[in-house]
Design a protein that fits this description.
Length: 339
Amino acid sequence: MKPERLIEVYRGELVESFHFGHLAISNNRGEIIAFWGDPKALIFPRSSCKIIQALPLVEMGSAKKFSLENKHLALACASHSGAEKHLNVAKNWLLKIGLNEKDLLCGYHLPYDKVQLNKLKKNKKMLSQLHNNCSGKHLSFLTISKTISQESDNIKNYININHPVQKVVKKTFEEISGYQNSVFALDGCSAPNFACSIQSLAKAMAIFANPEKMEQKRKDSIEILKTSVLCYPDLIAGDDRLCTKIIKKSNNQLIVKVGADGVYTAILLDKGLGIALKICDGSRKAAECLIVTILIRLGYLKSDDPDFINYLNIPIHNCSNKKTGIIKASDVVWKRVIL
């Protein structure tokens, strides 16, 4: 099977270019409810699977051992904007585990949050690893590492593929997704990211939506993570970011998570289903347009909501700020039966 033409870019009334991709909606048994493209296409889920990577933090008792709260667990699942509220939670977490920000091996980048970015420039402050959108995930890895061993060398090497932390993360990822694969690559934050199929990633999200078949400890851990995300949607991304906007508007029925290079996942809590999508050329705008369109079709979002209009039909402007076209989902996305 091949990817399908899912997103179209219009200049005036003519389709000037388009984006191919894959999308699958699955239940917790891995049965496909609807799909576009190839559900078996192999991808790197990137940050869209952070809630799975955070599962051992709760399941192994690490979160309880270090008295982590819902806000810390939400940050573990986040690709945050590096705003003050994100940094404060991360700093508090470091105090709880008795480590320094230099122990984080995620590297650093400019914060997405404009207020924090201007503050750094104005005060000529240095960037730190805490500004990295993946710092919560790395704090999670460090906390698991401290639970496994107190040896400093073991803690410092936590992103190595052969480290006990990554072994347990891989094992958990394979158990939840049902996809056994030795293929991995380093993510943008230098942590291993394990490849899987679109279908298996959608299944994993469905298991989070409905973990009824999981053993009680795992079921309880999943519920704790979901509650944390729903309690702190502003920590998952940021006030002006799509993931945060969608979760806030979903009435506790939906958790969504972006991944780099055109990936998105969604946990449909009320329906017990999961969604995974990948835009083949990695376009973020195309991925945002597609997830919003599908969620509108499923009734979670409204097409006239001001928060989502410019994702559903993304306006294109030229250098003179004149509208030249739009980006929107193709007819095949709108017309195919979903549920």
